[in-house]
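Please fill in the sequence for the structure shown.

STRUCTURE ENCODING:
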């Protein structure tokens, strides 16, 4: 997502491509995108840069996240005919004949999940996708889909600032054998150290409408991040590396995004860290559940989540 202009403009030149290549060269083997990131520009970049390295990584993309002018999901994106059409378009942009993991980006309230899961199961059997996933759905919806065709992965926001999945989703995934993928593992940048206040966000940055970055909330969240940074410095690692290592230790598969090659390499190094359990316990003391100030998203964003 960060390779598209979602968090402000993308730098001129080859910075995004360099970050993508740096991640692979550092040993990252999982690339996650979606058809709505930059209206397809993220998929196009990945297809252009990684076409000749397709056997080096697991490729995931998503469908069903288009929204109207009010930020509400367009109905019908879970229908079987739409699923097939969306996949063909993504395959063309990605320059491949299959994706390893294909997600329903958001639950389509106008289509029973059983119909969508059935269509995705057909695509698995046809060899066009290796498996399918769901994003930001409830444990109840996960179970309904899994009963039709086994779900490969569930993706939702999870970080020290967003620990709600620990209540029901993560246990359900463990019970069903579904991989748990954590998006925005660095609190949408708050735990990356670059955002110190609302004015640090560029015009057009999606986060300018997020409650956690509003005045009165962002200061509280930056203060929490600073305490995590102090803990990380004591261990000789970056804040991002500490948080990513914590997520890995908890069994999650974090997918940090960046536009900078140096950050991609540093993030990848988190997978090799061997930190004592007491360090992770201190992190959880610093940022207990529900410590973050502000809701996960604004009203229209929350309306699109299956809770």
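FILLED IN BY: designer on duty
SEQUENCE:
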């Amino acid at each position: 997502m960060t390779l598209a202009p979602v968090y402000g403009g993308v730098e001129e030149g080859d910075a995004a491509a360099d970050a993508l290549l740096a991640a692979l060269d550092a040993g990252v083997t999982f690339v996650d995108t979606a058809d709505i990131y930059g209206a397809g520009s993220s998929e196009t970049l990945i297809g252009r840069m990684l076409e000749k390295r397709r056997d080096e990584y697991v490729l995931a993309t998503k469908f069903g996240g288009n929204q109207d002018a009010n930020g509400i999901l367009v109905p019908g994106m879970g229908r079987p005919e739409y699923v097939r059409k969306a996949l063909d378009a993504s395959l063309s942009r990605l320059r491949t004949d299959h994706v390893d993991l294909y997600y329903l980006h958001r639950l389509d309230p106008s289509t029973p999940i059983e119909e969508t899961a059935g269509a995705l199961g057909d695509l698995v059997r046809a060899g066009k996708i290796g498996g399918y996933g769901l994003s930001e759905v409830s444990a109840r919806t996960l179970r309904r889909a899994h009963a039709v065709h086994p779900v490969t992965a569930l993706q939702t926001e999870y970080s020290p600032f967003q620990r709600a999945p620990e209540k029901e989703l993560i246990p359900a995934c463990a019970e069903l054998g579904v991989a748990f993928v954590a998006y925005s593992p660095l609190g949408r940048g708050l735990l990356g150290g670059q955002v110190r206040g609302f004015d640090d966000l560029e015009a057009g940055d999606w986060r300018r409408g997020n409650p956690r970055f509003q005045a009165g909330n962002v200061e509280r969240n930056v203060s929490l991040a600073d305490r995590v940074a102090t803990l990380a410095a004591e261990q000789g690692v970056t804040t991002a590396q500490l948080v990513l290592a914590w997520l890995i230790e908890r069994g999650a598969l974090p997918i940090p995004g960046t536009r900078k090659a140096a950050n991609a390499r540093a993030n990848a190094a988190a997978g090799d860290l061997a930190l004592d359990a007491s360090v992770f316990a201190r992190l959880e003391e610093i940022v207990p559940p529900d410590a973050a100030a502000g809701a996960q998203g604004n009203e229209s964003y929350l309306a699109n989540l299956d809770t």
